[in-house]
Amino acid sequence: MIKYSEIEKLFNVDSDFKSKLIDEFFDPDDFKKLQDLVMEDYAKLDVPYDKGLGRYSAPNNISSIRAQWVAEEKVSQLLGEEYKISGQYSVKYQIKDGNIPMLYDHRDTQGGNITVDIVIDSTLDWEIGIEDTLYKESKIGSAIVFNGQTLRHWRPEYPSKNESDYIVLMFLVFAKPDHWIFTHGKEFEKVFSKVQQINAMGDEESSEKEELKKSTEALYDALMLIKTANEEVGCSRQREILGIDK
Question: Which domain holds residue 83?
Answer without folding.
Answer: 13-177
